[in-house]
Design a protein that fits this description.
The complex is a heterodimer of chains A (about 110) and B (about 110). With about 110 residues, chain A is an all-beta fold. Chain A has no helices and eleven strands. Chain B is an all-beta fold. In chain B, strands 2, 4, 5, 9, 10 and 11 form a six-stranded mixed sheet that branches. In chain B, strand 4 and strand 5 form a beta hairpin. The chains are: A mainly beta (about 110), B mainly beta (about 110).
């Protein structure tokens, strides 16, 4: 089955620790995205990548980092510099930036 | 600035019809999307409008007026499983999606 997987579904970390969220897709999509979702707010774009080995900052990139070494994978690292990391993180992919995005199941990160 | 407005919450009765409105002000326009999101789950694509008019897809329809910066999602024959949040998103001139905060729809028996 084609789709997007994110792991883990729930993640707990202590303040000051870096944490990496996984995102894998087998849809052969070129573009991948990371969003953050907070209660009462729309999805906010953290980073996106249109092609392997290239990525761009979104609206709220500070405190986050990404890599795109393989077409299928787009991991997100939440660093200790991110002031409010507790949130629901969604990964998405599309055939191109002009097309609909398909979402993974999300990772709920709680920083204690 | 860019802005998408949707009602925060709506309540409707099973079997009825509900219309969820979305107004937008964005830097350019390259299409409008509606997504459904059940609590704690991923958004799933419902509809896409780029030209004015109504797009119908089963029980769901979406309307767009570009001159008014306005769209609505119409849900007919409501079922309990339609209880979810409905997200409106506009693709701007840079092909980035600008998202509304979503409308939580509560269906009562």
């Amino acid at each position: 089955d084609g789709g997007i997987t994110q792991s883990p579904k729930y993640l707990f970390r202590k303040e000051g620790q870096n944490v990496t969220l996984s995102c894998e897709q087998n849809l052969n999509h070129d573009a991948m995205y990371w969003y953050r979702q907070d209660p009462g707010q729309g999805l906010r774009l953290i980073y996106y990548s249109q092609i392997v080995n290239d990525f761009q900052k979104g609206d709220i990139a500070e405190g986050y980092s990404v890599s795109r070494e393989k077409k299928e994978s787009f991991p997100l690292t939440v660093t200790s510099a991110q002031k409010n990391p507790t949130a629901f993180y969604l990964c998405a992919s599309s055939t191109g930036v002009a097309n609909e995005q398909f979402f993974g199941p999300g990772t709920r990160l709680t920083v204690l | 600035g860019q802005n998408i407005d949707q009602p925060t919450e709506m309540t409707a009765t099973e079997g009825a019809i509900v219309q969820i409105n979305c107004t937008y002000q964005t830097s350019g326009f390259n299409g409008l999307f509606w997504y459904q999101q059940h609590a704690g789950e991923a958004p799933t694509f419902l509809s896409y409008n780029v030209l004015d008019g109504l797009e119908e897809k089963g029980r769901f329809s979406s309307f767009l007026s570009r001159s008014k910066g306005y769209s609505y999602l119409l849900l007919k024959e409501l079922q309990m499983k339609d209880s979810a949040s409905y997200l409106c998103a506009v693709r701007d001139s840079n092909y980035q999606l600008i998202w509304g905060a979503g409308t939580k729809l509560i269906i009562k028996p």
